[in-house]
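Figure 2 data, in text form.
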Amino acid sequence: MRSGLFLPIFDELADPATVARLSAEAEEAGWNGVFVWDHLRWREPVVDVADPWITLAAIATATKTIRLGPMITPLARRRPVKVAKETATLDRLSHGRLTFGVGLGSDRFGEEFSRTGEELDERRRARMLDEALEILVAAWSGEPLTYRGEFYNIYGTRFGPRPVQDPGVPVWVAASYGKTRPLQRAARHDGLIPINLEHPDQLAEMVADVRTLRQGAGKDLTVPYDIVAALPAQVDPAPYSAAGATWWLVEFPWQGSSVDQVRSVIRNGPGP
């Protein structure tokens, strides 16, 4: 099981240069990845919220081997053609180390949909997410793309240069325990980010379900597929590894996370 940090880039961690330095330290200490939250704003008392793409670019230039990515991008509030360019460019900057975490997003924690005039209906956002993912996968091919959907239309446009990774950037999809539609979405892509887990048995159930869905969709089950367990630092990841997790991410609290706190976790190392 690979290990990574899952950082809310808020307040003290809202400085890209600081997060880049921490990422370099994590790489030197043997961690395998650094992933950052993607939000426009958050509830009080959070004041400062960094842009994930600028932060990830800083991480990419400060490191050589770790994987990196947004975790989790609410894709329905972004233009997919712009994200296609951003992800391909970042993958090239990092020499093929980008992983793209996506999900439906929520207005519950920061009101970032309602306060900026974005779509509030979750069913519509889900359809927007599915269309946007179709566009991204097609855009990463480097071939001319024509797409006509409910929300997005593209006419004979080529999005080059392509990402370094072939056939494209790996996509991890967030899914809540007990929700079927997000699991179906995750089965179409490269990884699953279970959220709201309370026990490793729930993870094992989701792993079995997504395997069945992938098999039913005709996916090659010998192709690597990632299962992400995001856990607080004090939680033992071993039972989650036994349940099928391929990645363990140390999850930091949104309130009060500091440079010293992150550095302490880094220095403790990714081992048991």
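Caption note: Residues 60 and 94 are 5 Å apart (CA to CA).
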